[in-house]
Structure formats: C-alpha cells, structure tokens
Amino acid sequence: MTLLYILLATLSITFCVFVAVGFLYIKKEILPKILLTLVSLSAGALMGGAFLHLLPESVSSGVGFDTAGLIVLLSFIFFLLVEKFLHWHHCHKANCDIHGSIGRINLLGDSIHNFIDGLVIAASFLVDFNTGIATSLAIALHEIPQEIGDFGVLLYAGYNRKRALIFNYLVATTVVLGGLAGYFFNFMIEGVMPYLLPFAAGGFIYIAASDLIPEVRKETSVSKFMLHLSVFVIGIIFMFLIKFIHE
Fold this sequence. Notes:
This protein is an all-alpha fold. It has one domain (2-18, 35-246). The chain contains ten helices and no strands. The chain has helices at 2-14, 16-23, 31-60, 65-86, 102-127, 129-156, 161-172, 174-188, 193-217, 222-246. Helix 2 crosses helix 6.
C-alpha cells in the first residue's frame, strides 16, 4: 500500500502543470494578485511542513536532534549551490526577464528539483502516512505558482504553448521516478529514509526563505502585505491541523 500511496501522490503532483496553465488564462491584471496569494500559502505550507512534520518525524524515528539540525544546515547549503549553478531560482511570475538557453537550463533544474521532491514524498510515506500527505500537499501548493513561472520562462525562451506544456509535463514526471527510486532505495539501504526527512526540511526552509518570502516582502501596500502574511500563517495552520488530526 505504501508504494501505491507514493505513486498516487507523485502522479497527482504532475497534474499541477495543467492547473498552472489554467491560471495563465486569467486576466493579466488579476493573475499577479492570485499568484502572490498562492506564493504566500505555499511559503507557509513549506515552513509548516518542515517544522511541524519532517523534523519531528525524523527525530522520533531515531535521528538525534543534533544530527537532524546538522543535516538541515547541510541541506540548506546544498540547495543554495544547486540554485547557483543550475539557475534553479524559480520565477513566480507569468513573465520573467530571461534570455536564450535559460529555457533548457530551467528544464534541467526542474528535473532535478522534481526528482528530489519524489524522494522526499517517498521518504515521508515510508516513515508515516500523515507525514506523507502533509509533505505531498506542501509540495503541490508550491508546484502551482512554480509551474506558472516555469511555463512563462519557456514561452519567453521561444517555445510555443504546446511545446512548453509537453516539456513541462515530461519534466514533472521525474517526481514519479524520484518516488519510485526513494521507495526501492529504502529497501536497499534500510533506515536511510529518516535521514532524508531533515534534508527535505532544509530544502523546504530554503525554498520558502529564499524564493517565496522575498516575493511577499516586496509588497509595498501595508494592507496587501498583511493579507499575504495572513495567508502565509494560514498555510502553517493548515499543516498544523493535519498534524493535530493525526494525533
């Protein structure tokens, strides 16, 4: 059943591509407002997933608190390096200031990103079902604004809408490969998955702090900023409620 849960969760993540494309047909003056709300919710869900689910489950699975903290820090550095050298910094706008081969680089970075997401989903389900659900939801909420930006990147790089959609979906399927690899890797090296949870937590924290929260912080209107801050908190509460229901 665990393998089935992993497959269903990762396949569901791939459909975020089509949801994101649907958002692109919303009026241009409305789309940025919706995107920033999605970014705020995604940031809250990722932070909540990291601190309320992944780290506690890792510690309760036998990973020492000091070890988990060290893995989080190493993970943070790893994702910084990946972003630097693979241009993995995701645009969270429908149109991005990019040029030339960045389309192909973006696809490569996304493939690695999605594969890691699949490993994280597998690790979460192998440790605990509810942690798997919470992690999958956090990733899905981040995928939608990310895919909107990625689709815009490909269009700007010269891809037509059909090619951009096909390539984006093919890249999205690497999350399924990551999920399968994570499931079978766990049986090859028993006990490795609890150590992947703090690694995932570091990635969640990095994405939220580096990519998402700065977008929210750019808001100049105090009332709009407070609205998006409230949505950010709702994302955290959402993750807490999943944990509360589990307990």
